[in-house]
Write a structure and sequence with these properties.
It is elongated and about 115 Å long. The model has no long low-confidence stretch (mean pLDDT about 90). By secondary structure, it is α+β, with helices and mostly antiparallel strands. Strands 3, 4, 5, 6, 7, 8 and 9 form a 7-stranded antiparallel sheet that branches.
Length: about 325
C-alpha cells in the first residue's frame, strides 16, 4: 500500500512494508500434518486403554479363581478334624431346632449337622438339599456340590446357648448344643469343647441377588452359624463352574478318582466316603462383563466331563488342584 506524508512542505512517497504470512496451501498442509499426528496419538491411547482393560480382566480372573481355590483347599485340609478324638463319635446330644438345615429327602431333622464323623461328602451335578438350604433358583444347574465338616481350630473358652459344639477327649467325643456339657465315660470335664464347622459349597448363578444386572456367577457356601442355623455366604464372585472328583486308594500312584460315592450326607454310620484320601477340584472363573470384539471359543475340560465351549464374549480361566486329606479315618 502507498501513501504520501508531508514533511517541511514537501511531499514524500513512502512504500508500505510488505507483511509475511501463511498461504492457504501452507495452512492446509499444517492442518493435515497436525491431524495425522493427533490420529496417531489417539490410536496409541486407544491401544493402551484396550491393553489396560484386558489386563484388568485377566487380574480379575486370577484374583477370583485363586481366592476361591485357596479357600476350598484350606477347608479340605482340615476336613474331618475332631480335636483330640480319634475314636468314633458318640451318639449326639439333643441339638434342638436348627434353622435352614441342609437335609436330603427323607432325612431326619438334626442328622445333617450331627454327622461330624463324615468329614467329606459330595453330589454330582445336582442339588439334593431342601429349598430352605439351597433354593433351586440359587443353584446353577450342572455343577457339583461339596460338603466339608470339621471342628474349629481352637476350643471354646466360653460356651454360648445356641452354638453347636463337640466335646473332645482322647478316648471319646460327642456333639452337643448349648452350655450344658454332656458326660463322657463318667467324666464331667472333657479335655475341650470345640465349635462345629459345616460348609456346603455350590455355584450360584448370581453373586448377591437374582435381580442383579448383569448376573455374575459365584462360588457360595451354606455355613453353620453360631446360633445353630445355616446361612448362605459368598466365597468368591465370578466362579461359573465347579467339578469335584474323589481319590480312593493308597499311594498317590494307585489313587483312583471317581465322580460320586454311595452314601447319604446324613448317614451317621460308616460309608464309602470314609475311604476318600484326596480331592481333585476344577473351578472355571469368568469375567463380570463381556469384552467387545472378543469371542471365547476355547474348549474347557473339567475332569471327565464333556468339553465346555462357551462361544460368547466373556474371558475365562480354568483353575485346578489336588488336596490330600489329613484327617482320614
Amino acid at each position: 500500500m502507498n501513501r504520501y506524508i508531508s514533511a517541511s512542505g514537501r511531499k514524500v512517497f513512502v512504500r508500505a512494508s510488505r507483511q509475511a504470512g501463511f498461504t492457504l496451501i501452507e495452512m492446509m498442509i499444517a492442518i493435515t500434518i497436525g491431524l495425522g499426528i493427533l490420529a496417531g496419538l489417539v490410536g496409541v491411547l486407544a491401544t493402551n486403554s484396550g491393553n489396560s482393560r484386558s489386563n484388568d480382566r485377566t487380574s480379575e480372573l486370577m484374583t477370583n479363581g485363586r481366592y476361591a481355590l485357596n479357600s476350598m483347599k484350606q477347608e479340605l485340609r482340615q476336613a474331618g478334624f475332631r480335636g483330640y478324638t480319634w475314636a468314633e463319635p458318640g451318639t449326639p446330644g439333643a441339638l434342638g431346632a436348627l434353622g435352614n438345615e441342609c437335609l436330603e429327602a427323607g432325612a431326619t431333622a438334626g442328622s445333617f449337622v450331627a454327622n461330624i464323623r463324615q468329614g467329606l461328602w459330595g453330589a454330582q451335578s445336582l442339588n439334593p438339599f431342601a429349598a430352605n438350604c439351597i433354593p433351586a433358583a440359587n443353584y446353577s444347574d450342572g455343577n457339583d456340590l461339596l460338603v466339608v465338616r470339621r471342628l474349629d481350630n481352637l476350643p471354646a473358652t466360653t460356651l454360648s446357648a445356641n452354638t453347636v459344639y463337640f466335646q473332645s477327649s482322647y478316648a471319646a467325643g460327642q456333639m452337643f448344643r448349648g452350655t450344658a456339657v454332656p458326660t463322657l465315660f463318667g467324666s464331667p470335664t472333657p479335655l475341650a469343647s470345640f465349635p462345629v464347622k459345616t460348609y456346603v459349597y455350590y455355584i450360584s448363578p448370581f453373586t448377591e441377588a437374582a435381580n442383579e444386572s448383569p448376573l455374575v456367577p459365584a462360588l457360595r457356601r451354606v455355613a453353620l452359624q453360631s446360633d445353630g442355623s445355616m446361612a448362605s455366604e459368598l466365597v468368591a464372585s465370578g466362579i461359573e463352574r465347579m467339578n469335584v472328583q474323589y481319590g480312593i486308594g493308597g499311594a498317590a500312584s494307585t489313587t483312583q478318582y471317581v465322580n460320586i460315592i454311595n452314601g447319604s450326607s446324613s448317614d451317621l454310620t460308616a460309608t464309602d466316603w470314609d475311604s476318600v484320601k484326596s480331592v481333585r477340584i476344577w473351578l472355571l472363573a469368568r469375567n463380570a462383563t463381556t469384552e467387545p470384539g472378543y469371542t471365547n471359543a476355547n474348549s474347557y475340560v473339567m475332569g471327565d466331563r464333556a468339553a465346555y465351549v462357551p462361544n460368547d464374549s466373556y474371558r475365562r480361566q480354568l483353575f485346578t488342584t489336588v488336596v490330600e486329606l489329613r484327617n482320614g479315618r
